[in-house]
Specification:
Elements (H helix, E strand, L loop, with lengths): L1 H18 L14 E9 L15 H14 L3 E5 L9 H4 L4 H10 L3 E2 L9 H11 L3 E2 L4 E2 L1 H4 L7 E5 L2 E8 L17 E2 L2 H14 L4 E6 L5 E2 L5 E2 L1 H8 L7 E3 L7 E5 L3 E5 L7 E9 L4 E9 L10 H18 L2 E5 L20 H14 L3 E5 L27 E4 H7 L5 E8 H11 L11 E4 L1 E6 L8 E7 L5 E5 L7 E7 H4 L13 E5 H12 L14 E4 L14
Parallel strand pairs: 1-2, 3-4, 7-9, 9-12, 12-14, 18-25, 22-27
Antiparallel strand pairs: 1-15, 5-8, 6-7, 10-11, 13-14, 15-16, 17-19, 18-21, 20-25, 20-26, 22-23, 23-24
Length: 562
């Protein structure tokens, strides 16, 4: 198409020159044709079919996408892993088939894999691949054909005559973020090498533009405002001159920047709270001559949801409401997912929801202590914060705030089992050390605890940060009774089975652990018997998790709960 356009322009120019030869010579410079390509991207969607506080939701995203596609039909729509897994009950209850069906209806072009794609193992993932009407692309998985069918290692799309090659990069840390064996015999290879290899292969196959979809994100900003994180490492580490766009994911961080003078790097907020509209202009030689990205908040107000997707969602809600809309308890204060440092995903500080969940484990099994990883806590516990995803009743203006069975399942969507074990004081310290090892970066391994209060020095090397620990009193306050963190002491500990198996870098104690009940059922039972809940996060040095600094690294700012 572009070759034809160029020839027509050249003929038109020659006609004008010939026609003007009888008089003054007229020279015409034909405009070189270009093609505008549009990429719509969503990061870390997690099957968020329903809106969050009037933003996002599959039916509304489809309306926004259709409007953008009408403005420019030369459009591809991408996600970058974790589009399933850690999803709200409307999807997780049906093993995430609704998420894939909704993506089909939304017109997604391609996706790659993130760690949560493997939450239910490769057999379940194969079902999702088979159900999808879009492409899954993964370019850095060894033993792919032995484990999964129908997954591309490279895909080239013809968009308005421009060939767009797409490479998919899975995050290397994925095996540590899921249960052992969840990846089958898949092995994740080096992402930079795989991206370079995929880009070269795409170019050899005729691609004009190369896009990398990767489940890597920005972790934060340095004091000078520059970003850091695995997405930035990838963008700065790939060979220059081959890749045009990298679409990131995984860390719920909105970012756009140009790296190595040509690679446009973009990441959105998670769960469809924002989506990126990337505009590329490609010249007749297949070179990207202009690139830009804008972020859009898909607010629901004044927008008509896609009727087909909305009907699909309504049917799912009708099936689940009698089960998950049951109010099982209440709280005298709202219990958000966010921690008391204001981090929305609760991965920097002590949180109310973390306190409730660990208290539930410790109380249920009568253990000395309980620990859970913050990455396993995925939503607010109380209504109305739990929203329609928690199957909340009509909101009331004052406490007590209701807690539904659906809200509990939203907090704990993975189907984890509670486990109990006996650990030495040294092993307990290793658990606590791992829980703060990624600080000051937010990480899903951040530990929420019950039965103890501990202090750590954020400036010390990872593995040597925990300086002290004391027991909690019955009222939750910190006592002066020191916990012996040496090999000579022994304690009972309640954790989830993911952690027991070494997930998120925790000590692997599975061989000496006892599997108990479903974790979400334990929490639901605790809510039912302990309501109304009155959780609290206390100020330093009386909190369950207390940060100090002996050096230049600053502690996050914690605001005690009311």
């Amino acid at each position: 198409m572009r070759r034809f356009t160029r020839s027509a322009a050249l003929v038109a120019g020659l006609v004008l020159v010939v026609a003007g030869s009888a008089g003054a010579r007229l020279e015409v410079q034909a405009a070189k044709p270009t093609t505008a390509i549009q990429l719509l991207t969503v990061s870390d969607w997690h099957g968020q079919l329903v809106p969050i506080s009037g933003v996002g939701g599959a039916a509304f995203l489809k309306t926004y996408f259709d409007q953008a596609r009408a403005a420019n039909p030369n459009t591809l729509t991408f996600m970058a892993g974790d589009s399933i897994g850690a999803s709200p009950p409307i999807s997780s209850f049906f093993e995430d088939e609704p998420a894939i069906e909704a993506m089909n209806m939304m017109g997604v072009t391609a996706d790659t894999f993130g760690n949560h794609n493997f939450d239910r193992g490769v057999e379940h993932l194969q079902r999702m691949v088979d159900l999808a009407e879009f492409d899954f692309i993964a370019s850095n998985l060894a033993n792919l054909e032995e484990n999964l069918d129908g997954v591309e290692t490279l895909k080239i799309y013809d968009v308005g005559g421009v060939k767009v090659g797409v490479v998919g990069i899975v995050n290397e840390e994925a095996p540590t973020l899921v249960k052992p064996g969840a990846l089958g015999t898949l092995e994740i290879t080096d992402s930079i090498q795989a991206a370079n290899k995929g880009a070269i292969a795409a170019k050899k196959a005729g691609a004009d533009v190369v896009v990398v979809l990767t489940h890597k994100g920005v972790r934060g900003l340095n004091p000078d405002g520059s970003p850091f994180g695995e997405l930035i490492d990838l963008a700065n580490g790939v060979a220059a001159g081959q890749i045009d766009v990298i679409v990131g994911d995984h860390t719920d961080f909105q970012y756009s920047g140009v790296h190595q003078d040509r690679i446009l790097v973009v990441e959105n907020r998670s769960k469809g709270l924002t989506f990126a509209n990337i505009q590329l202009v490609v010249d007749e030689k297949g070179k990207v001559v202009s690139r830009s990205a804008t972020f859009q908040v898909p607010t629901n107000a004044g927008v008509t949801p896609d009727p087909g997707i909305q009907a699909f969602i309504n049917d799912l809600n009708a099936q689940l409401a009698p089960i998950l809309g049951i109010v099982i308890g209440s709280s005298m204060k709202e219990i958000p997912r966010a921690d008391q440092c204001g981090r929305p995903d609760g991965r920097l500080c002590e949180s109310l929801v973390g306190n409730v969940v660990t208290d539930a484990l410790r109380t249920t099994y009568g253990t000395d202590f309980a620990i859970t990883n913050s990455g396993g806590l995925r939503a607010a516990l109380t209504c109305p914060l739990a929203g329609s995803g928690g199957f909340c009743p009509a909101p009331g203006p004052t406490p007590p705030f209701p807690i539904t069975r659906g809200a509990v399942l939203g907090v704990l969507p993975f189907g984890n089992q509670s486990t109990t074990t006996t650990v030495t004081g040294a092993e307990l310290k290793a658990f606590l050390e791992n829980g703060v090892s990624a600080m000051p970066g937010a990480n899903g391994r951040f530990a929420q605890v019950s039965g103890l209060c501990f202090t750590y020095d954020i400036s010390m090397p990872a593995g040597s940060r925990v300086t002290s620990a004391v027991r909690q009193a019955a009222d939750g306050t910190c006592t002066t009774t020191a916990i012996d963190l040496t090999a000579g002491a022994s304690y009972s500990l309640a954790i989830n089975d993911f952690m027991a198996a070494g997930g998120d870098g925790y000590p692997n104690v599975l061989a000496k652990s006892t599997t108990r009940n479903l974790m979400d059922q334990d929490v639901a039972d605790y809510v039912a018997t302990s309501s109304p809940l009155t959780p609290v996060v206390r100020a330093f040095p009386n909190g369950r998790i207390n940060c100090t600094s002996s050096g230049a690294v600053a502690c996050p700012t914690l605001t005690p709960s009311p």
